[in-house]
Specification:
The chain is an alpha/beta fold. The protein contains twelve helices and 18 strands. Strand 16, helix 9 and strand 17 form a beta-alpha-beta unit. About 5% of the residues have low confidence. The strands form four sheets. Strands 1, 3, 5, 7, 9 and 10 form a six-stranded mixed β-sheet that branches. The chain has a six-stranded mixed β-sheet with strand order 15-14-13-16-17-18, with helices on both faces. The protein has a four-stranded antiparallel β-sheet with strand order 2-4-8-6, with no helix packed on it. The protein is elongated.
Length: about 450
């Protein structure tokens, strides 16, 4: 507990000091007037302390969640209580926390007639792992406005931060409630859209005559055609680069690229599992960090969420030769391999492109890179100074080299997505459904 005089008390002392000293200038025997003024001010401060809310009478209750989802603000309910005689008291709040948490100061709260006040502490996690909310700092002034009290209320609560499965669920609901997308999934059952036999139907003019099943037609004494649907039970492997570059946020200061990739990967896994495919997980940086064999069933999403929660941000540069060669040796059947990574220029991307090309000779590779929207904005912004012009030229060079790498990958038969974290999930699901419809795996 820290008690300090307020600005009002200091101004009152400064304003009254000349008035108290004036009698002493008239006569030396009147100098006790100055002491009387100081004593009066001390008494006022003492009265403000006595009438103010004491520390022991303030009750603070903060409800903490079991987990925090990265990048998703979570309002933590906060309840303050004091005796009813302190109604109308205004308190300001501030949180003491690890730098991996973002907690803006909430607005001041005022105690109601019953001495209670409800507020919320908006908490957003910037990195996965465990972050700590250390304490709440509360401050208020006495009824006379002369004393300022500051209280540190210890919390010391470790908060577990996990991938944003909440956003994945919301995006999945939007996708599967979209009529156009639902129609697209149903269209996979139509003739010519797949290679897996689904059912027989009576021939209608306009259907492909090559799909007529002559034996079944003879048995039923009418023309019947075979219907096909997109083949299921494909293998989809989500390959996550956990190296140094993926652990950095974009220029906007948001969540790390790795967490944006994890969110997109979990959404793609949910869609793939719902459509009957099997999904596995692979993570690497300077060494292989994780390999989970592809499995089917929607419950696999929870397994993947648990596995991605344990992925750490690697401090080393990514070894694409080791990582992709190991993945290639572990895949026994042709699969759709979705590689989540990022690169800076053509030099750093040389080994990445070579190893992706080797992987694409045996598997269908979908390359997903999280672009930096701040870099494009920097390149297009009108320069206001020579420094701005230099930054714009460098940013444009980076974008040009990025485009050269993506063109090289496309020439090698690799499907490429280069989009900001906010849009990469939708682009990824759209490209996956297109690959599935065209039976490219």
């Amino acid at each position: 507990m820290r008690i300090t005089p307020t600005r009002r008390a200091l101004l009152l002392f400064a304003a009254g000091l000349p008035v108290a000293l004036l009698p002493a200038l008239v006569s030396a025997s009147l100098w006790p007037v100055w002491l009387a003024w100081v004593a009066a001010l001390v008494l006022l401060i003492g009265a403000d302390l006595a009438l103010g809310l004491p520390r022991r009478r303030l009750q603070v209750q903060l409800d903490l969640p079991d987990v925090l989802y990265i990048g998703s603000p979570e309002p933590l309910p906060l309840r303050l209580g004091a005796p009813a005689r302190h109604r109308g008291l205004r308190l300001t709040l501030r949180a003491e926390h690890d730098p991996d948490l973002s907690i803006p100061d909430p607005p001041p709260v005022t105690l109601g007639d019953d001495g209670l006040a409800l507020s919320e502490l908006p908490v957003a996690a910037l990195r996965r792992g465990t972050s700590t909310l250390h304490a709440l700092w509360l401050s208020w002034t006495g009824p006379l406005g002369l004393v300022h009290r500051t209280l540190r209320h210890p919390v010391d609560a470790p908060l577990r931060v996990v991938p944003n499965i909440r956003a994945v669920r919301a995006a999945a609901l939007r996708i599967f409630s979209d009529r156009e997308l639902t129609a697209g999934l149903k269209a996979e059952r139509h003739l010519g859209d797949g290679s897996e036999f689904d059912a027989l139907r009576e021939y209608q003019p306009g259907l492909d005559h090559r799909a007529i099943d002559w034996k079944a037609s003879a048995r039923h004494v009418k023309l019947l055609t075979r219907e096909f649907r997109a083949e299921r039970n494909h293998q989809v492997v989500l390959a996550l680069d956990t190296g140094h570059l993926m652990g950095q946020p974009d220029t906007g200061g948001g969540i790390p690229r790795l967490d944006g990739a994890i969110n997109a990967a979990l959404l793609l896994a949910y869609v793939a599992l719902k459509t009957g495919d099997r999904v596995g997980l692979f993570a690497f940086d300077d060494q292989v960090r994780l390999f989970a064999e592809p499995q089917g069933g929607v419950a696999t999403v929870h397994r993947l969420q648990h596995l991605t929660s344990g992925l750490d941000y690697g401090p080393a540069e990514t070894n694409f030769t080791l990582g992709l060669t190991t993945l290639l040796s572990r895949l026994r059947r042709r699969s759709l391999v979705v590689v989540f990574t990022d690169f800076v220029d053509t030099v750093t991307a040389e080994l990445m492109a070579d190893n992706l090309g080797r992987l694409a000779r045996r598997h269908l590779v979908l390359f997903a890179s999280l672009s930096d929207p701040g870099l494009a904005a920097l390149a297009e912004a009108p320069p206001a100074s020579l420094s701005d012009l230099n930054q714009a030229v460098v940013a444009r060079d980076f974008l040009r080299e990025r485009d050269l790498v993506l063109r090289r990958l496309r020439r090698a038969g690799i499907h490429c997505i280069d989009a900001p974290a906010a849009r990469v999930s939708a682009d990824l699901v759209s490209r996956y459904l297109d690959v599935k419809r065209r039976e490219l795996v």
